[in-house]
Design a protein that fits this description.
Elements: H1 4-11, H2 15-29, E1 34-37, E2 40-43, H3 45-72, E3 77-83, H4 85-90, H5 92-102, E4 106-112, H6 115-124, E5 129-133, E6 143-157, E7 178-180, H7 186-197, E8 204-207, H8 211-219, E9 225-228, H9 229-235, E10 241-245, E11 252-259, H10 267-282
Parallel strand pairs: 3-4, 3-5, 7-8
Antiparallel strand pairs: 1-2, 5-11, 6-9, 6-10, 6-11
Helix pairs in contact: 1-2
Length: about 290
């Protein structure tokens, strides 16, 4: 329950002026925003909706003012990137580090999300650029460009029955308990599809939200798991682990850059996209996604 009088006092405005402004707003909208009663006022359903949108607008305004103030302080570019964990762990530290060294005036905001959420964020304008899986993501009307490729490997505790194999089919791992990633992650979606194709299901013992947590769980005997090869190179020291290459064709994956319109991106974002593409082309043994 609210009070027009207390609100007017807090804002140093006459209560009659507040009431008048609210009445004018209700007339303009054609619906009551408040229930008025002897003890004060309460929001109507329309009032709740109006309040939610008003708060969203004020938040966006504050964010715009904060970003514009950075330009006044010398930041001449601001790029928002949403990327999946595979890109963040395997490629972006070096690629973004090289970019920032050349373009110190550009601010980069990087957030980790699953591929489906990345596409949604770019489509809705919450991110300028997305980096997501090529195979497991429907990009819809977004534009896409190839970025990197990786290969999935089976990670097992050293001494596991599968550790002695030079390579393995994913189907042959399904007799064992697995440690899985988020249900909407590109890796898990691909594994679930591959298991269904073989007429099997994944014996999922535990689900985690990060690749480092997966490695720790595997090290402690909770199952085996699948992750990208370069990620394993970074994380293998988290336990006594061994990687076995998967022979399945789908285990070679592509990562892609997505945007609503690459040519319509702000200048700083266009320069970053060019830099990421150049990094992919220069990486030893690189074969761009979609090539």
């Amino acid at each position: 329950m609210g009070s027009i009088g207390k609100t007017a006092e807090r804002e140093s405005i006459a209560a009659s002026a507040v009431s008048k402004r609210l009445s004018n707003l209700e007339d303009a909208l054609g619906t009551p925003l408040l229930y008025r009663h002897a003890r004060g006022v309460d929001l109507t359903a329309a009032g709740e909706t109006f309040l939610r949108h008003a708060r969203s607008l004020l938040f966006s305004l504050d964010k715009m003012q904060a970003e514009l103030s950075e330009y006044a302080e010398g930041v001449r570019g601001h790029v928002r990137i949403h990327a999946n964990i595979s890109a963040i762990l395997q490629f972006l530290p070096e690629d973004l580090g090289g970019f920032v060294a050349k373009h110190e005036e550009v601010k980069i905001d990087l957030e980790e999300h699953v591929s489906s959420d990345i596409v949604r964020a770019v489509r809705d304008g919450d991110a300028d650029i997305g980096i997501c899986s090529q195979q497991a993501t429907n990009t819809g009307q977004l534009q896409s460009r190839p970025y990197q490729r990786d290969k999935l490997v089976l990670v097992v505790p050293r001494g596991h029955a599968l550790a002695a194999l030079p390579s393995v089919r994913f189907e042959d791992t399904l007799d064992y308990d697995h440690v899985g990633l988020h249900i909407n992650s590109a890796i898990y979606i691909g594994l679930r599809h591959a298991a269904a194709e073989a007429g099997r299901i994944i014996k999922l013992r535990i689900r985690v939200t990060s690749l480092d947590a997966m490695c720790r769980m595997i090290h402690n005997g909770l199952g085996i798991g699948v992750l990208p090869d370069r990620a394993f190179e970074v994380l293998h020291s988290l336990g006594d682990l061994h990687a076995v290459p998967l022979t399945d064709e789908w285990s070679e994956r592509g990562l892609q850059l997505v945007a609503r319109d690459f040519d319509g991106l702000p200048a700083a974002a266009r320069v970053l996209v060019d830099h990421l593409s150049e990094c992919a082309a220069r990486r030893p043994g690189a074969k761009l996604a979609g090539a």
